[in-house]
Amino acid sequence: MSVSIRHIILHQLNTTSNGDVTFEARDQVLSLNNDVETLVSELHRIYNSKQGKGYGFFADDGDGEQEFSRALTDYLDQDNDFVSFSQQAIKLLQTELMKYNFAEQGYLMLANYTHIASNYLFVALISPKDSIAVDETLEVSATQHLELNNLQLAARIDLTMWQAQPDCNRYISFIRGRAGRKVSDFFLDFMGCKEGINVKEQNKSLMNAVEDYCSASEFDRSEKEQYREKVFDYCKDKIDSGEEIGIKSLSNSVASDGESGLYQFVNQHGYELEDEIPGDRTTLRQLKKFSGTGGGVTVGFEQKHLGERVVVDLHNDTVTIVGIPPNLRDQLTRRLSSDNE
Fold first, then answer.
1. HSE of 143, CA atoms in CB hemisphere, 13 A
2. Cα distances (angstroms) measured from residue 258 to each of 126, 263, 272, 304
3. pLDDT in tens, 271-287
4. I need a surface site. Which of 39, 172, 178, 244 has the fewest CB within 10 A?
5. CA 281, CA 52: separation in Å to the nearest integer?
6. Diameter of the chain by CA atoms?
7. CA separation (Å) from 34 to 1, 10, 251?
8. End-to-end CA distance of the chain, in Å?
9. pTM of the model
C-alpha cells in the first residue's frame, strides 16, 4: 500500500477537571520520515477496513460554505497554508465540543495525502493509551502510544471527488460513532458535514434487485445460487480494494451473455439505486448466508443448505438442522454426558 504524504500535523485536545476544553497547537507540520509514513499508511489501512461507514458532504450554513470547508478551500487554493488551516480546525473542534457535556481528549490529526489517483484529507481524533516500554538499556518506563486500532472519530474527505463533483453527496466518509451517530455528532458538525447517501439502504436495494432479477429471469435454484455467488464475489473484491460498486459494471461482470440485464432491470423497476455505491459487507453477506440472533440463540447457515440440511417451517416457528457441525456436536456430547451423570 503506497501513500504519498503532502502535509501532516497533530494538535492536542484536553478537557480540564471543571469541564473546560483546551488545546495545544503545533506551529509547524510534522517532518516526513519513516515513522510518520508508517503512521499514515496504518491509519489508511485501518480506516479502509472499517465496516458500516457513513457518507456525506459539506452542508451550507445558509450563507454559503461553513468555516471548515472555507478554510479547506483556502488551503487548496493556496490562499492559506496547512498549519493555519489545521489551527482553524482545532479551534472549530474546541468550540463544538464546548456545546456538549461529555469529555473528549486526544490528538487531532490532519493529514493530506494521495493514494493511487485520489487526493485525501484525513481528519481523526486519536486517543492516547498508557503503556509500559523497555528501552535499549532494558530499563522500564511508562509511556503513551496512539490507540489506532480503536479508531472511532475519523473522517476522510476525497478532495479529488469534491473538486471534480462538488454536488456529489458522498465525498466525505466517516466512521459511525460508538453509539451510532449521537456521540460522533460533534465531530461531523465541526466539519459541517451532513450525511448524504444511506449506504445500508442502497446495499439492501441492490440485494433485493438481485433477488427479484433472479426470479424474473426464471433461474432455477442452481442458477440463482451461482448468480448470487458472482454478485457477492464482485462486490467483495470492490470492498476489499476500497472501490465503489458500479451497478452497470457489476451487471456486465456477472452476466453470462455479456449483456447488462441486471442494470436494465434496476432502471426499469425503480429501485432508486445510484450508479455507483459504497459496498456494505454485512448487508451483502446476506446474498450467501442467513443469520440471526435472539433470545440467547444464534443461527447462521449458507443459503445453499436451505431446504436440504436446513428445513424451515415458518408456520410452526421451527428450524431443523440435519447434520450437526462436528465442533457443536462435541460440545453437546460432553455437556449432555455431564448432565446425565
1. 10
2. 47, 12, 23, 25
3. 888 889 988 888 888 88
4. 178
5. 8
6. 81
7. 14, 16, 42
8. 58
9. 0.78
